[in-house]
């Protein structure tokens, strides 16, 4: 065997590439390990393929062994893959590896550090951490000799004969002083767990296999149990509880994409900014924030996307406008919609139970993406005041304590004269009075209670041009009122007129419109606040933009229920008051006005419209009024 001893210059165009690598790629040096382990895994699969073709021996099962030597300050990454002959080292290391280094640096200059996880840095990334890199490699092809390639960070390399019993490659890094953290096994272990966990080949650190290997998303959904999915979720996102549901993605045309996405249970805590979906490329971890790949509304999803077809050596902004990436994003959205449709079909109750967590994705998605809106049109649920359907009809769906309906389901139950108006409430407590008026007359009310609904309702109206959404306290229709003929006095005034006058005088506030009606519902309150729909929406929008609570708009309607005994009594008092000179000085008139103001405050209290500093005055007046009325024997 001729003894080889060769010196040479690596053919690169950039003068002295190593300091540039070191300087330019200033952050994320740790990815060198991912690159070297990936090369080992590639070499192992190349050997397997070559062995199948009968070109080389098969050898033992593939394994990557990582060892450290504190004394020598070396970190060794060894594989039993295909190895290289001297010629191959010259070709692949001296030429391929370093020409890709040049390409990378060229790109890097333009794109800055936006290049995702510096993916595809390759072999030369070793020079980010090592002052000297040695390769001892022996090809698996028959009659191959081992060779040693060495390079000290200048463009000069040496190549010589070496000893290696078995085929494979050792990459021996002599670490720089400032990179000695990579001599610590604990640090290496963390890096293996991050980048190499799901690689198909065992990665051993000082003899112990560290990576998980099994990547469930590479299997078909049929091979996995619910537990497999839940285990993966808990492994990737510890201490976050179990996922709500998941979507298994698997396609090889027009691009190759595998993955499992999870809907977390608590979307309230979800990350809508950065995203928590992990991107892999052939089971190698790339990044845990890929907001450029999935549509924004899917960012709170978690899990894994694995695709060799997502370009990784481009900047993030280029990724966002990449056509293939866009179509991958659309594919993911469609699969999410398909999965939701299946859950709703197979187990409507489970779907309804999950709905509150799903609603933010689905509603925002529908508003932001027309295609998604069509896909989820029948999957949007609304909590409803209706009770659950009895067996035969699928809608409303009961979850035990609540019932849910689709918009179509709701419309199908509307009376045909009135099938364009959708009644809704946003707060069971603050709108309890108005809600009760409708429900007691058998009307169904949808509950649109989340912040998103403030924008979702106008969006629904735009999409269904024939529909109008009306909050329960916007206005009342005739079905809720007793329209009896009013008795008119000789002077042409009615009871309602007198009541309205009394209250208007008592409140002396032009912004409050007073309406008098006889309400049908049992237990209807003496008065309630109504907020006409459009005016209230403007107020809500303004509040949302200023990030304050909407509060009670200055302009509102006070609806007085003349059927209520308190209101009836108030009118009697007024009628019985004796005019002593100036009307205001009559104690009875004053009492009637006090009661009118009190009725108004009670209505405001009911909708949370009484300011905290008004509460004590309200309390004092309550006690005074009760006292006065008792003294009068009323
Ligand atoms: N451990 C190894 N065993 C066998 N061949 C190797 C090994 N490491 C590197 N090589 C050879 O050197 C070439 C260059 O490696 P390098 O890591 O720079 O680029 P790459 O793996 O081809 O692509 P990438 O830039 O995506 O990593 C490889 O294509 C391979 O032929």
UniProtKB/TrEMBL annotation:
Binding site for ATP: 35, 39, 79, 84, 169, 316
Keyword Chaperone recorded: yes
Location of the Histidine kinase/HSP90-like ATPase domain: 28-179
SUPFAM superfamilies the UniProt entry points to: ATPase domain of HSP90 chaperone/DNA topoisomerase II/histidine kinase, Ribosomal protein S5 domain 2-like
Any one GO molecular-function label of the UniProt entry: ATP hydrolysis activity
Database matches in SMART domains: HATPase_c
Keywords tagged on the record: ATP-binding, Chaperone, Nucleotide-binding, Stress response
Keyword Transcription regulation annotated: no
InterPro entries in alphabetical order: HATPase_C_sf (IPR036890), HATPase_dom (IPR003594), HSP90_C (IPR037196), Hsp90_fam (IPR001404), Hsp90_N (IPR020575), Ribosomal_Su5_D2-typ_SF (IPR020568)
Similarity comment: family membership: Belongs to the heat shock protein 90 family.
Protein name as annotated: Heat shock protein HtpG
Biological source species: Parasynechococcus marenigrum (strain WH8102)
GN (gene name): htpG
């Amino acid at each position: 065997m001729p003894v080889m001893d060769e010196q040479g210059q690596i053919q690169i165009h950039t003068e002295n590439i190593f300091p540039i690598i070191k300087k330019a790629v200033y952050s994320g040096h740790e990815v060198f390990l991912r690159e070297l382990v990936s090369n080992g895994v590639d070499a192992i699969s190349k050997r397997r393929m070559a062995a199948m073709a009968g070109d080389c021996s098969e050898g033992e099962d593939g394994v990557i062994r990582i060892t450290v030597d504190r004394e020598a300050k070396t970190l060794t990454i060894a594989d039993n893959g295909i190895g290289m002959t001297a010629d191959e080292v010259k070709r692949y290391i001296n030429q391929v590896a370093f020409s890709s280094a040049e390409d990378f640096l060229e790109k890097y200059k333009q794109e800055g550090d936006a290049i995702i996880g510096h993916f595809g840095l390759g072999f030369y990334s070793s020079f980010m951490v090592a002052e000297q890199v040695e390769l001892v490699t022996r090809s698996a092809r028959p009659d191959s000799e081992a060779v040693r390639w060495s390079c000290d960070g200048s463009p000069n390399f040496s190549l010589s004969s070496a000893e290696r019993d078995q085929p494979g490659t050792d990459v021996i890094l002599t670490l720089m002083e400032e990179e000695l953290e990579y001599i610590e096994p604990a640090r290496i272990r963390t890096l293996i767990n991050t980048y190499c966990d799901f690689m198909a080949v065992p990665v051993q650190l000082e003899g112990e296999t560290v990576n998980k290997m099994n990547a469930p998303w590479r299997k078909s959904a049929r091979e996995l149990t619910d537990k497999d999915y839940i285990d993966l979720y808990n492994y990737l996102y510890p201490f976050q509880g179990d996922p709500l549901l998941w979507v298994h993605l698997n396609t090889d045309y027009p691009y190759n994409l595998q993955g499992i996405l999870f809907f977390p249970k608590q979307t309230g805590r979800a990350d809508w900014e950065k995203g928590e979906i992990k991107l892999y490329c052939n089971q190698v971890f790339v990044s845990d924030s890929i907001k450029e790949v999935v549509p924004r509304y899917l960012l709170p999803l978690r899990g894994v996307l694995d695709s060799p077809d997502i370009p990784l050596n481009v900047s993030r902004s280029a990724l966002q406008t990449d056509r293939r990436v866009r179509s991958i994003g659309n594919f993911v959205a469609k699969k999410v919609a398909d999965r939701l449709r299946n859950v709703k079909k197979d187990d409507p109750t489970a779907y309804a139970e999950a709905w509150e967590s799903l609603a933010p994705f689905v509603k925002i998605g529908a508003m932001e993406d027309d295609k998604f809106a069509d896909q989820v049109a029948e999957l949007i649920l609304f909590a409803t005041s209706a009770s659950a359907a009895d067996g035969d009809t699928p809608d409303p769906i009961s979850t035990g304590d609540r019932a849910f309906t689709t918009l179509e389901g709701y419309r199908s139950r509307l009376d045909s004269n009135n099938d364009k108006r959708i009644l809704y409430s946003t707060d069971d407590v603050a709108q309890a009075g108005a809600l009760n008026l409708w429900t007691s007359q058998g009307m169904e009310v949808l509950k649109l209670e989340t912040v998103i609904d403030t924008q979702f309702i106008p969006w629904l109206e735009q999409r269904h041009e024939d529909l109008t959404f009306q909050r329960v306290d916007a206005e009342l229709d005739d079905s809720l009122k007793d329209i009896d003929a009013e008795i008119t006095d000789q002077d042409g005034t009615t009871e309602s007129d007198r009541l309205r006058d009394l209250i208007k005088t008592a409140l002396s506030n032009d912004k409050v419109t007073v309406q008098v009606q006889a309400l049908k519902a049992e237990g209807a309150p003496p008065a309630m606040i109504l907020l006409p729909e459009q005016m209230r929406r403007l107020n809500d929008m303004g509040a949302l933009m200023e990030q304050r609570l909407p509060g009670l708009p200055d302009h509102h309607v006070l609806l007085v229920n003349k059927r209520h005994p308190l209101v009836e009594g108030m009118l009697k008092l007024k009628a019985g008051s004796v005019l002593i000179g100036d009307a205001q000085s009559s104690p009875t008139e004053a009492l009637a006005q006090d009661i009118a103001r009190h009725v108004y405050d009670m209505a405001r209290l009911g909708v949370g419209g009484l300011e905290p500093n008004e509460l004590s005055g309200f309390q004092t007046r309550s006690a005074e009024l009760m006292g006065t009325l008792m003294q009068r024997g009323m």
